[in-house]
Amino acid sequence: MCKRTTAGFWTGLLFAGALAGAANVPGEGREPLGLGRQATEAEMRAWDHDVSPAGEGLPAGKGTAQEGARVFSTKCASCHGVTGTEGPAPRLVGGQGMLATKNPVKTVGSYWPYATTLYDYIRRAMPFTAPQSLTSDEVYAVAAWILAQNGIIKADAVMDAQTLPNVRMPNRDGFVPDPRPDVPNR
Asked: Where are the alpha helices (DSSP H) in 40-135?
């Protein structure tokens, strides 16, 4: 296993951009394909934030599992199911103790090493049909709901920039540091 960081995401994004850019560069005997366009400054700013496993980069705001249940039911359940287990999108709940089995169930509760990266992922990519549309409070609340559904935090716990980094994920020690010299070891 490797340590999951957002470095891989950014590397992939840069690679995709390089491919798209290369496809649009006219060269000898080549015409631009007209694929894509240059990102605007506002689009770049919207993606230019990062949350570390230690919580650096978490914004102000807060949320509880109770608040998250309302957000999840309206914006997430159509993909993940009403309890976070039904799909059709990947399960978010359950699977604890199954990683070493023949058919491991990888969920937030069984696989993810840091609760802060859960926040970062939800903020960047969810809901699937409208990424980055949730407020900071809604993201904290959905993260709290998922963590509570997995039995990792109490249902009345408040998640914010101070409490979320202190959540101890069950698989925190199931990862090894990334040995690449360009990846900071956090």
From this structure: 41-47, 65-75, 77-80, 115-125
**Separation between Cα atoms, residue 84 and residue 101, nearest integer Å:** 21
Query: Is this structure's pTM higher than 0.85?
Result: no
Res 157 pLDDT > 70: yes
Task: Answer whether 144's CB lies under 8 Å from 63's CB.
Answer: yes
Closest by alpha carbon to 136, among 43, 61, 33, 82?
61
Q: Which helix (H) or strand (E) holds 24?
A: helix 6-24
Calculate the alpha carbon distances from 110 to 31, 146, 151 in Å. Answer: 49, 12, 11
Cα dihedral sign for 108, 112, 115, 119?
A: negative
Residue 160's beta-bridge partner residues? 62
Confidence of residue 16 (pLDDT cuts 50, 70, 90): low
Closest CA relative to residue 138, chosen from 74, 57, 67, 56: 67
Look at residue 120 and tell me whether its pLDDT is greater than 90.
Answer: yes
Residue pair 117/53 in contact by the 8 Å Cβ criterion: yes
